[in-house]
Amino acid sequence: MSRAEGRLDEAGLIARFFRPLAAAPGAALLSDDAATIPTGDGPDLVVTTDALVAGVHFFPDDPADAVARKALRVNLSDLAAKGARPAGYLVTLALPEDWETDWLDGFAEGLAADQEEFVVSLLGGDTVRTPGPLMISVTALGFAQEGRTPRRGGGAPGQRLYVTGTIGDAALGLRLRQDERLALKWDLRRDEREHLLDRYLIPEPRLALAGVVAAYAAASMDLSDGLVGDLEKLAEASRCGAILEADRVPLSRAAARAIRADPSSLTDALTGGDDYELLLAIHPDDVDAFEQEARAAGVPVVDVGALVEGAGVEVESNGRPLALETRSFSHF
Amino acid sequence: MSRAEGRLDEAGLIARFFRPLAAAPGAALLSDDAATIPTGDGPDLVVTTDALVAGVHFFPDDPADAVARKALRVNLSDLAAKGARPAGYLVTLALPEDWETDWLDGFAEGLAADQEEFVVSLLGGDTVRTPGPLMISVTALGFAQEGRTPRRGGGAPGQRLYVTGTIGDAALGLRLRQDERLALKWDLRRDEREHLLDRYLIPEPRLALAGVVAAYAAASMDLSDGLVGDLEKLAEASRCGAILEADRVPLSRAAARAIRADPSSLTDALTGGDDYELLLAIHPDDVDAFEQEARAAGVPVVDVGALVEGAGVEVESNGRPLALETRSFSHF
C-alpha cells in the first residue's frame, strides 16, 4: 500500500479503522465527545480521553503547570459537554530521556491546583520512557444521570444555539504566540494580549454548567476545533443545517479589539481551535429557564443562531452570508 | 535542578510526583493494578491504563495485530487480577509521520479479533501525530462486585500463593528474540521456540478466572515485571514476607527444556517480565474450593509458596535458598 493512500485525516482514519470496532451504543460510533456506559442501577459512566504531544499540541517551552492543566481541562470540558460531574482521571506520561525534576514538579503542581478547583482526584496512570517528545494522555471519568447525556446528534430544526463564555480568544492567543508583532498590529493593551495568551494556554472547562446542560441541552459538544467547524459537526450529527449569526458571537474585549484592527482575524476567531467553550442546542420552550439557570450557575451563555432544516452551516453578518477562508482547525 | 537528581526509577517518580495527587480511596495510592470507583447502587467501576512505546515495549517490526492485542491484553490482565469483567476500552494512538495504511489495518484486525475473544468493545480514544515513535495507550474499564476487588495488600501470613498458567515463557521469548542462537543453546524444538516467542508477543489475560478471583483471592495482582519482584510488591503491600518454592513454579515444556540446558535461564524465568499471569493469595480454608472452581473455569493454577511473618521474599529450591542475580524487570 502506498503512503499516499495512507494520507487520511483524523476523521477519515477513525472512520476507516476504528469505527467498525465501536459496537457499544454508548460509544456513539466514536463521533461524540465522550462515551457512556450504563452501570446497572447507578448513574451512567461517562468517559473521554485526549492526548497532547509536545511541539504538536503545546509549545515545548510552555510552563509545565499550564501543560498539566490543559491536558486535564480539555478532558473535563468533554465531561461538561455531556452534562457529567467528574469522578476522577488517569494520566499517562511518556517522558523523553532528558526529563527534569523541575518540570515534573511543575506538572504535578498544575494538576494539584486543578484537582482543588474542580474537586477531582487522580485515579491511576502509567509512566513510560520514549525516545520521542513528551506526551500526555489523560482519561477522565464522570457520572451523569442515567440516559440524560446530551449527544451531538440530539438537535432539531428550530432549536436555538448557545455558546458559553467568549469565542476565539485561544485561536488569537495562538496567533500571538506564533507572531508577537501581531499585538502591535491588533493595537492590544498589555492585559488584553495576556488575556488571549492565557486563554490559549489554559482553557476553562464549563463544569459549573454540567447540571444545566444535562437538564436542558438537546444537543451539546465542546468547542475544540473552531466554532464553525464544530457547529458543522453538531448540525450534521443532528441531520439538519444551522445559521450562525457572527455579530452575536460573544467576544472578549481583547478579541473585539483585534478584529476591529484586523478584520481578517474574525476568521481565526470563528474557525480557530482551543476554545473549550460549550455549544448547546436548546428547545425554544426551554430558553428562558435555561438562561436563568445558566446565570444562576455563573456561566455566561449567548444565543448565536439556530438549527434549521437542510444541511450545512451558514455564517451571517448583518443579515448577509459571510465568506470564511477556512472552516475548521485540525490538530492532527 | 541537575539531571542526575532526576534519575528516579518509575516507582520513585510515581511516589514523588503522583502519589500525593491520588487522594481517592479507590486509587489505592497508585500502588495497585487498577483503581476502583463506587457507582452508588451499581457495581464498582474498575479502571486501568497501560501504554506501549515502539522500541521500548515492543519491537518496531512486531506484527501490527500482535501489538494491538498486547496493548489491549495487558490492560485486560489488570482487570482479571482485580476480579472484574470488562466493560470496554479506549485507545489513544500517537502516530509517526510515516504511518502506513497496512499497519493500521493489521492493528484494527488485532483489536477486532480480541474484541470477539474477550467480548469487549471500543468506547473511544484519540489519534494524534507525533514526531517520535508510535505509541499506544489503552485504558480498560470493568465492573466488579461492590467492595469485592482484591487488592495487592490483602494478603496475610499463612495464606497460600498461587500462579496461573506457566511462568517465564515471555521472558525467555524475549531473550530468544534478542539472540536467536539461544534456541540452539537451549536445545529447543521448533514448536517450543515458537511457543516462547508467541508468549512474549501475545499474553493471555486470565479473564476466565475473574469471578473466581473475586470470590476467593485475599490478595491479587498480575505479573508484568517478573514473579519474584512482583511477589515482593504483593508481600510488601500485605506487610508480610513470602516463601517462593522455585521447584513448584509451573513451567512450559519449552521453558523447562531451556532451563535444563542452561540453568542460568531460571533467573530469567523467575524474574523476567511480561508473564501476565495472575499471582493470588488464598486463605488455607479456601484452597480446595478455589482449586476446584479454577479447574471448572479452565484455568490452570499451581500452589507455589506461602505468605509468612516478616518481610521480603525467600526463593527456595530443594529446601535451600536460591540466589538470584536480579529480582525484577523494569520496562521504564
TrEMBL record, chains A, B:
Domain PurM-like N-terminal: 32-143
Domain (PurM-like C-terminal) ranges: 157-316
InterPro entries in UniProt: PurM-like_C_dom, PurM-like_C_sf, PurM-like_N, PurM-like_N_sf, ThiL-like
A molecular function GO annotation: thiamine-phosphate kinase activity
EC class (word): transferase
Residues binding Mg(2+) 1, per UniProt: T49, D50, D126
Nucleus found in the keyword field: no
Coiled-coil residues: none
Keywords, in A-Z order: ATP-binding, Kinase, Magnesium, Metal-binding, Nucleotide-binding, Thiamine biosynthesis, Transferase
EC assignment: 2.7.4.16
Domain of life: Bacteria
Entry binding sites for ATP: G125, D126, R152, S224
Residues that hold Mg(2+) 4 according to the record: D33, T48, D78
Pathway, per record: Cofactor biosynthesis; thiamine diphosphate biosynthesis; thiamine diphosphate from thiamine phosphate: step 1/1
Binding-site residues for Mg(2+) 5, renumbered to this chain: D225
Binding positions for substrate per the UniProt entry: H57, D274, F329
Reactions catalysed: thiamine phosphate + ATP = thiamine diphosphate + ADP
Ligand binding (Mg(2+) 2): D50, D78
Binding-site residues for Mg(2+) 3, renumbered to this chain: D33, D78, D222
Record-linked NCBIfam families: thiL
Additional note from the record: Reaction mechanism of ThiL seems to utilize a direct, inline transfer of the gamma-phosphate of ATP to TMP rather than a phosphorylated enzyme intermediate.
Family: Belongs to the thiamine-monophosphate kinase family.
Name recorded for this polypeptide: Thiamine-monophosphate kinase
Organism: Chelatococcus sambhunathii
